[in-house]
Amino acid sequence: MTKASPRSQPDVLTVGLGEAGRLSQRWKVVFAIGLALLAGLVVWRFLPARAPLFSLSDVQGVYAGFEATNNASLIDSRWSSEQDGYIVPTACGPLFEATVLNRPPQEALDGVSTFWEVDHSATSLFTYRFADVADADREFNRLATVLDSCDQARVEVHARPATRGLLTRTPLAPDSDPPAQIGYVLTNNAGVKLAVHVLAFSNTVSWQFRYEPVPGIYLPLTGQRVMDSLAEQMRAVQDLNR
Questions:
Q1: pTM of the model as a whole
Q2: CB neighbours of 153 closer than 8 A, spacing ≥ 6?
Q3: Which residues contact 109 (CB under 8 A, 6 or more apart)?
Q4: Residue-wise pLDDT tens digits, 12-24
Q5: Which CATH number fits domain 56-240: 3.30.428.10, 3.40.47.10, 3.60.130.10, 3.40.1000.70?
Q6: Diameter over CA atoms, the chain
Q7: 3-state secondary structure of 57
Q8: Domain residue spans in the chain?
Q9: pLDDT tens-digit series, residues 179-198
Q10: Residue 38: enclosing H or E segment and its boundaries?
Q11: What gap in Å lies between CA 70 and CA 56, rounded to an integer?
């Protein structure tokens, strides 16, 4: 008994959603990727560029805009001469390290300083440069934290100029959109004042130290104008480097 072989089926040529559909899907993927790349390019083009860090020559350029009795000098933290002395209580010592004790911040790279005298008052202004913004912010926040604890404290400075008195926070009134700043003043019974103003900008921290041996209430307006001018100069230099 023989079995009938299955009836052969004719070859069928299919045209339509097969290969053509796959090609269409590929073009859709390519188009979507291209559109995403174009959108990313547009967003990148119109986003504000990240502000460049300050080099030492940039900081020198900032100080070139200040007129002072002495020309600006470079600060090399490796060769800075610390002043002998100490602060009581020691917890408040960081507030006078960079100024009275002339001790650079541990993470500072270098910097620029200047000073001037008006009548009986003397002012020094100096900026330390750090490796990055995080290091500068860490130093500024360290001082801000100490000030929170030492505000309204009795403080003794056992260094030149030696003094003792009440440490108080200075109310600040900076220009619009100011950098982070703190201010404080140590006033003794005779009215002699050691005033400090600290400003953080990008990878730098700046100190203004004023010695005012004149009785009376400390008026921070003059010091504030100096720091406003410093911040304005820093923005100008930074914009040139964008």
A1: 0.79
A2: 89, 92, 166, 167
A3: 56, 77, 128, 129, 130, 131
A4: 444 455 555 555 6
A5: 3.40.1000.70
A6: 133
A7: helix
A8: 15-47, 56-240
A9: 999 999 999 999 999 999 99
A10: helix 19-46
A11: 19
